[in-house]
Specification:
Elements: H1 3-14, H2 21-52, H3 55-82, H4 85-108, H5 114-143, H6 148-176, H7 180-199, H8 215-228, H9 232-245, H10 249-260, H11 265-288, H12 296-315, H13 319-347, H14 350-364, H15 368-405, H16 409-420
Subcellular location: Cell membrane
Protein name: Enterobactin exporter EntS
Pfam family, one: MFS_3
C-alpha cells in the first residue's frame, strides 16, 4: 500500500467528514480564519490589561462581548430556522472582518480607548449571537448525521490547532510590532472563510412555519422540548456550568501571567498555547472515537475532571506546572464540549435543532458575562489563584449534583441508541 492510499484510508477511517466537498471548503477556511481569531483574542486581553491594569475591567470587556448572546440567542434560533444558513454566515463573517479592521485602525493610529474596545466587543457579541447557532446547525446540512460528530471533532481540532499557533504568533507580534497587527491580520484572515462559504453548494433546511405561531411561543416550545428530553436536559445543564465557570481563560491566564508569575507577553502566549495543545489532543481523541457517538457519561466524567484541573491550576505557582495543568484542562474541556455539542445536534429533531443550538449558544457562550464578572471580581479581590480555585470548586459541586440527579438518563440513552441504529 503506497503512502497516498494509506493516507486516504486513514482519512476515511478517522476524518470521514473531510470526504464531503462542502465541508472541506468550510474547514479549510476556518483553518486560516481561526488563527487570526486567536491572535485577536490574546491581543485584546493584553491590550485591555495594559490600558487599565484591572482584571475586573478585562472581565467587563468579555461580558460585553457575550452579553448579547445571553440576551438574544433564543431569538437568533428562530431567525436561523427561517433563512438559508450559508447566507447568514456570509453576512456574519463579513461583519466580523469589518470589526477586526476597525479595532486594528484604532490601535495602529494610537487612538484606541477602553470605551471604544467595549463598544466593538458589544458589536462583535451581537454578530456572534447570530453566527454561533448558524454555524452549529449548518454542520448537518453539509455532512449529514452520520458524520456529524466527526465534523464537530474536526472543528474542535481546527479550533485548537489555531489556539496553539495563534497565541504563539500573536505573542511574538505583540512584542515586536504591537497588538494592532494582531487585529489587522485577523481581519485579513476572514477572506479565507468567506471564499470557502461562497463555494459551498448545499440544499438548505428552512423550517416551514405554522400559521399564527409567534416568536415567543416558538422559543417556549424549544425550551419545553429540551426540558422534557432525558438526554438534552442534563447535557444543557452541564454546558451551563462549564460555560459559566470553566471557560474564563481570557481573563484568568493574562492576570495569572502578569500578577502571579510576573512574566510578559511571551509567557502569556506560551500558556495559551499549552491550553491549545491539550485541547488539540482532546479533539483528536474525539475524532478517532466519533463512530461510537456521543455519550452522556463522558460529558459527566469530563466535567468533573475539568473542575479538578481548575483547582490544581489555582494551587500552582510556576510556568511549567501551570502549563502542564492547562494542557490537561484543555484536554478535558474539549472532550466535554465536543461530546456535548454532538449529543445536542444528534438527538435533537430537525425542526428543533436550530432552537436547541441557540439554547446551547445561550448557556455556553451567553453565560460568559456572568462567569467573566465573577472570575474578574474574585481575581481582583483574591488573585488569579483564588479565582481558579473558586471556579473549580463551584464547577465540581454543581456537576456532581447534575450527575447524581440525572443518573437514570444513562440507561435512557442506551435505549435511544438502539432505536437510532
Amino acid at each position: 500500500m503506497n503512502m497516498r492510499v494509506a493516507g486516504a484510508v486513514f482519512i476515511d477511517r478517522h476524518f470521514h467528514a473531510l470526504t464531503h466537498k462542502n465541508y472541506r471548503y468550510m474547514w479549510l477556511g476556518q483553518c486560516v480564519s481561526l488563527i487570526g481569531t486567536w491572535m485577536q483574542n490574546i491581543g485584546q486581553s493584553w491590550l485591555v490589561l495594559t490600558l487599565t491594569g484591572s482584571s475586573l475591567k478585562l472581565g467587563i470587556v468579555a461580558a460585553c462581548q457575550f452579553l448579547p448572546i445571553l440576551l438574544f440567542s433564543l431569538f437568533a434560533g428562530i431567525i436561523v430556522d427561517k433563512f438559508p444558513k450559508k447566507k447568514i454566515l456570509i453576512l456574519t463573517q463579513t461583519v466580523s472582518m469589518i470589526l477586526a479592521f476597525a479595532l486594528a485602525t484604532l490601535v495602529l493610529t494610537d487612538t484606541v480607548r477602553y470605551e471604544y474596545i467595549l463598544v466593538l466587543a458589544l458589536l462583535l457579541g451581537l454578530n456572534n449571537t447570530l453566527d454561533m447557532p448558524t454555524r452549529q446547525a449548518f454542520n448537518v446540512e453539509i455532512v449529514g448525521k452520520e458524520d456529524l460528530m466527526n465534523a464537530i471533532a474536526l472543528n474542535s481540532t481546527t479550533f485548537n490547532m489555531a489556539r496553539i499557533v495563534g497565541p504563539s504568533i500573536g505573542a511574538v507580534m505583540m512584542a515586536w510590532l504591537g497588538a494592532g497587527w494582531c487585529f489587522l491580520l485577523n481581519g485579513v484572515s476572514f477572506i479565507a472563510v468567506l471564499y470557502g462559504l461562497i463555494h459551498i453548494e448545499a440544499a438548505p433546511y428552512v423550517r416551514k412555519m405554522r400559521a399564527k405561531e409567534g416568536i415567543l411561543k416558538e422559543i417556549k416550545d424549544g425550551i419545553v422540548y429540551i426540558a422534557k428530553d432525558p438526554i438534552l436536559s442534563p447535557t444543557v445543564l452541564l454546558v451551563t456550568v462549564i460555560g459559566t465557570l470553566a471557560f474564563n481563560f481570557n481573563i484568568l491566564i493574562p492576570v495569572f501571567t502578569k500578577n502571579v508569575l510576573h512574566m510578559g507577553e511571551t509567557t502569556y502566549g506560551t500558556l495559551m498555547s499549552c491550553l491549545g495543545v491539550g485541547s488539540l489532543a482532546g479533539a483528536l481523541t474525539m475524532s478517532f472515537r466519533s463512530k461510537r457517538g456521543p455519550k452522556l457519561k463522558l460529558s459527566m466524567a469530563a466535567s468533573c475532571m475539568v473542575a479538578i484541573c481548575l483547582i490544581l491550576n489555582g494551587l500552582s505557582g510556576s510556568v511549567w506546572v501551570c502549563g502542564t495543568l492547562l494542557a490537561f484542562t484543555g484536554f478535558f474541556n474539549i472532550l466535554f464540549a465536543t461530546n456535548s455539542n454532538s449529543a445536542l445536534q444528534m438527538y435533537a429533531k430537525d425542526e428543533y435543532r436550530a432552537r436547541v443550538m441557540s439554547v446551547y449558544s445561550l448557556v455556553f457562550a451567553g453565560s460568559t458575562p456572568i462567569g467573566s464578572l465573577f472570575s474578574g471580581f474574585i481575581a481582583d479581590r483574591f488573585g488569579a489563584n483564588g479565582a481558579f480555585v473558586a471556579c473549580g470548586v463551584l464547577t465540581g459541586l454543581l456537576c456532581l449534583f447534575i450527575t447524581w440527579k440525572y443518573k437514570s438518563s444513562l440507561s435512557t440513552q442506551s435505549l435511544k441508541e438502539q432505536e437510532m441504529a
